[in-house]
Amino acid sequence: MSELILDLARRLVVGHKRDGRSIYDEQAKRELVLACREPGASIAKLARDCGVNANQVNSWVRLYERQLAKSTAPSVDVVDAKTPAFVALEVAATRQEETLSMDMQARLPNGVVVDLRGCDMQQALAMIEALGRMRCSASKKG
User: Which of 73, 67, 71, 1 is nearest to 34 (CA)?
Assistant: First the structure.
């Protein structure tokens, strides 16, 4: 176990309620959630190392991701039924050299289809990385 995780485990629980439930330090919770979101990180292992139930940490991660999505989502007051859900976006090339164009389609378990036609490798890589960081379940529940 690394020194950072040991330090985090020491700072995480700041007290207990009358019924025995733990009271957690908000900054330490945030650090644990960010550690769980690192590539290759295991929520169960980090939770075990910090002495917290993995389901509790998983709920903190989901809450963080919901808050992150809410803060980065564009605010739309009125949605017109005729307005398409996706809008074409032109991306100006940053280099003078010719880029390799490709077609990509991803079908997510929740039924969403991401269709990128004519994107370059950098755009495809950015999209794959973004999709890889998202939590996704096989169910179609909201």
Answer: 67
Rg of the chain taking only CA atoms, in angstroms:
20
115 three-class SS: strand
The model's pTM: 0.52
Work out whether strand 101-107 and strand 13-16 pair parallel, antiparallel, or are unpaired: unpaired
pLDDT digits (tens, 9 = 90+) for 19-63: 999 999 999 999 999 999 998 999 999 999 999 999 999 999 999
Q: What is the DSSP letter of 11?
A: H
Report how far residue 104's alpha carbon sits from residue 119's, in angstroms, rounded to the nearest whole number.
8
Query: How far apart, in whole angstroms, are the C-alpha atoms of residue 52 and residue 84?
Result: 44
**Average pLDDT of 74-87?**
57
